Structure formats: structure tokens, C-alpha cells
Amino acid sequence: MTMKFGVIGTGALGVDHMRRIQQTLNGGEVVAVTDINPEAAKQAVANWGLDAQVFPDDRTLLAEGNVDAIVITSWGPAHKASVLAGIEAGKYVFCEKPLATTAEDCLSIVEAEMKHGKRLVQVGFMRRYDSGYIKLKEAIENKWIGEPLMIRAAHRNPEVGDSYLTNMAITDTLIHEIDVLHWLVNDDYKAVQVVYPKKTKYASGHLQDPQIITLKTASGIIITAEVFVNCQYGYDIQCEVIGEEGIVALPEVQSVTFRKDAKLGVNLLMDWKQRFIEAYDVELQDFIDSIQKTGEPGGPTSWDGYIAAVTADACVKAQASGEWEPVTLKEKPEFYRTNR
Ligand code: NAP
Questions:
Q1: Ligand 1 pocket: which of 17, 34, 36, 95 to mutate (most atoms <8 Å of CB)?
Q2: What CA–CA distance (Å, rounded) separates 123 from 297?
Q3: Fewest beta carbons less than 10 Å away: which of 21, 22, 217, 306?
């Protein structure tokens, strides 16, 4: 049965997910759309030639749109209200990060979902669907490198605009490492610290760039993650897991090697949208397939959204204090423990 989607927020990613559902994936169609700017929603529908109705807001879309699921791609502060409205209406919810902008708001979603009685929500942490990270996880779980002891990660962008603030290195950028790295080693964060190396001349006056974030897990794994958002040379995601018996690392992005002008080399990506393009496809296809097979989405849960929010809060605190800051999570409810 085709899953009928309503899309809330038709900006860059909303439109991309509309294209994805309509043209690339199997088993879904976009039938309803809303954006705070109705003209943008109408334009998106027209651009893709969709047979979709435009609604004035999320609540009307949920009440009248005849949808099975919503995709939330509005801006972060609006996510909580749309997720809660989706749960209240008993619809499946695919919410782009962040699930909500505070840990408390994430918990209110967790509580609403548990009260509903089955999982409805998946958070858009697409790196878990990237084939490179999946291979790293397999190597770790098969004990191929023994126990993991350390992880070295880097998240580098060529440049960012003036509106990018120091805390966004955590809330917008590191947030993906926060999610994928604890998933990789199946461990919880316990404490975090942030230090600032020498600042690049390419960062605007108010921005600390680069930053080194250290995350310590419950079992003692130390993760050092570099965020460097004005690195100039490309969009570059690195991850190396150092174990007792060996090391595994993310593969480099596939690109032809060239020999030209007395050089031997490969081109790097400049645009982040290209790096995980397949992972975006696979995550949303999995959302559709899991629901059709099991009645629940199978990807990152509301609880994962909560973990990311608590950890990001601790990192932002550590940016200001320069000290180790604890990551204090509530006990994971049974509801989110089982793979159902
Ligand atoms: P964007 O281009 O700014 O799009 C957001 C859209 O939502 C805009 O059209 C905005 O309208 C609209 N909007 C804002 N509040 C709304 C509300 N209450 N109801 C309906 N529409 C509303 O941003 P984006 O890059 O698409 O990002 C969207 C979300 O995806 C963000 O949460 C972002 O963090 C996340 N994201 C995730 C990834 C990833 O790698 N998974 C990558 C990029 C973005 P106005 O422009 O008029 O405000």
C-alpha cells in the first residue's frame, strides 16, 4: 500500500525529500504540503508537478490531509509542536534533526509516544544509513579490531556564513557525530570537553573555529571530534576507530584518480548535500519499508533525539566552561530498548 505523506516545511531539505519520495523511493507519495510561507509551498508543489494539496498549517494538514505520515523539515524551534501534533493524530512522523531544541522538549515527545503505545517517530540522523558507517559498525560488532578504545573524527566544511555562531558547531554540525558515534560503539556518553586551537583567519570575528570536542563514554572510550567549518579545501568527514587489535576507518568518497599537469590526485566534494545523498534515500526508504513490514519505523528513535539534545547541551556548556561537563541521561525506558 502506498504511504501518503504530508510535508511540513518546504525549504531546501523539504523540497529534496519531496523529490525523493516522489521520484526515487518506492511505496510513497506526497499528498499534502504546508510551509509558514504558503507561496513557497505552492511553488514546491508546482515545481514537482505534484497532485498535492497545500494547507495553511501543520494542524490543518493533519486533520484534513488524509496522510499516513508527516515529514517535518521546518526550522528546528517548530519541530516539537509538529511532532506532538503528529503523535496526537496517530500519524507516523519522520522528523529532521533536531527532534526538539531542548532535552526537556525531547522528553515530552518521548512521553507522548510511550503514552500512544507504539513507535511512530523516526529522527533524520541519516549517517546510520551510510554504507561506510555501517561497515565500521559491522567490523566493531564482529570484534574484528578487538575492543574499540579510541575514535578520531573530523567534520570539515569549506566555509560558513556570518550567521553561523560558535554554539552551532555543536547544535548544527557535531550533532551528527554525537548521534552516529555512540551508535557505532553501542555506548553512552558520560562527559565532554571542548578546547579551541589557534583560530583560523577565515572565521568571522565572533566564531571560534576550529574546535576540538572530546567525548568520554561509559566504558571509557575517548572520542576526539574536530569541527572545522572554514577549512577552505572541501567537505570532509573522517572517522577512525582504534581498537585493541587494529584500526578501521571510513572509506574516502569514491572519485576517479587523475594524472594531469604533473599531478596525481582525486577530487574532494565541496557540497555537503552530495556526501550523504544515498544515505538520505536509504533512510526514508527504510522508514516506509519498516512501517509497512512491522507497523513501526525502524530507525533512530525519539530517545536518540533526546540523547543528542542532552549531549549537545553538555557540549555547549563545555564550550563556555572549558571544563569536563557531565552528560546526565535519564534511564532508557523499556519501550526504546527492544528492536520491535
Ligand atoms: P530551510 O531551507 O530554512 O527550510 C525550512 C523551511 O521551513 C522554510 O521554508 C521555512 O520558512 C519553513 N518553516 C519555518 N517554520 C515553519 C513552521 N512553523 N511551519 C511550516 N514551515 C515552517 O532549512 P533546511 O535546510 O531545509 O532545514 C530544514 C530542517 O532540516 C532543519 O531542522 C535542519 O536542521 C534539518 N537539516 C538536516 C540535515 C541533515 O543532514 N539531516 C541537513 C540540512 C538540514 P521560512 O524560510 O519562511 O522561515
A1: 36
A2: 10
A3: 22
pLDDT tens for 174-196 read 999 999 999 999 999 999 999 99
Task: Give me the pLDDT at residue 339, please.
Answer: 58
User: Domain coordinates of the chain in residue numbers?
Assistant: 3-127+277-301, 130-270+306-336
pTM (two decimals): 0.94
State what percent of residues in the chain have pLDDT above 90.
95
Residues 6+ apart with CB under 8 A from 41: 10, 33, 34, 35, 54
Distance 14 CA to ligand 1 centre (A): 7
In this prediction, residue 340 carries a pLDDT of 47
* Tens digits of residue pLDDT in 155-172: 999 999 999 999 999 999
How many CA atoms are closer than 13 Å to the CA of 158, on its beta-carbon side? 9
Pocket test for ligand 1, best of 8, 33, 75, 271 (most atoms within 8 A of CB): 75
Q: Tell me which architecture the domain covering 3-127+277-301 has in CATH.
A: 3-Layer(aba) Sandwich (3.40)
Topology of domain 130-270+306-336 in CATH is: Dihydrodipicolinate Reductase; domain 2 (3.30.360)
Q: Quote the mean pLDDT of the chain.
A: 96
Closest to 306 (Cα-Cα) out of 114, 136, 151, 165: 114
DSSP one-letter string for 59-118: HHHHHHS--SEEEE-S-GGGHHHHHHHHHHTT-EEEEPSPS-SSHHHHHHHHHHHHHHTS
- Ligand 1 site residues (CB inside 6 A) read 8-14, 34-37, 40, 73-76, 78, 96-97, 124, 126
